[in-house]
Design a protein that fits this description.
The chain has helices spanning about 1-15, 25-35, 40-60, 65-85, 90-115, 125-165. It is mainly alpha-helical and about 180 residues long.
Length: about 180
């Protein structure tokens, strides 16, 4: 249930005023991959694609180009990366997944913007460097948001379990004796 709640929060935040790229999208994708039903892994993908279409066409009135397909493929990849966390929801793997998500989005999306733009950046090494340099301020807030929200989302079930007062008998072999 938390996976769906976090997904709804991530989609809703995209429609609210927020600092550029400081959203819980990465956290929601990773958490859904790690905790969501395997049969419904398509759902976060569909929700984010639908929100992209609405934001692009109706809110920002931009035109679609093929670089949007790169972002959509990235959504699927991050959900898949989250599935690798199913049995490894410890701090180090979760933080590594968040960092991988941030860096991969920065590299892939900015390369796609450079490659697909007409007139914005020259199709030279200098143009590519300029594209990446222009995106660095956005990367910082994306990285901060990804790490913060991923930490909060993955810590939430642990905190809820602790607050519920239900004892954790993992590793308790007294019943077997």
């Amino acid at each position: 249930m938390l996976a769906y709640l976090f997904l709804v929060i991530a989609v809703a935040v995209r429609f609210m005023p927020h600092p550029w790229t400081f959203t819980p999208v990465v956290a929601a994708l990773l958490f859904f991959g790690a905790r969501g039903s395997k049969r419904t892994l398509w759902f976060p993908f569909a929700m984010l694609v639908a929100s992209d279409i609405i934001l692009t066409k109706f809110v920002y009135a931009y035109h679609f180009s093929w670089d949007q397909l790169v972002v959509w493929a990235w959504y699927a990849a991050i959900i898949w990366l989250g599935t690798a966390l199913r049995d490894r929801q410890r701090p180090l793997p979760v933080i590594a997944a968040a960092l991988t998500s941030s860096v991969s989005f920065f590299v892939l999306s900015n390369f796609a913007v450079w490659a697909s733009s007409t007139g914005l950046y020259p199709k030279t090494m200098e143009g590519l460097v300029s594209c990446f340099a222009a995106a660095v301020p956005f990367f910082r807030s994306a990285l901060e948001g990804d790490l913060l929200f991923t930490t909060v989302f993955f810590a939430t079930p642990v905190v809820l379990h602790f607050l519920s007062g239900i004892p954790d008998h993992t590793g308790d072999n007294s019943a077997a004796a």
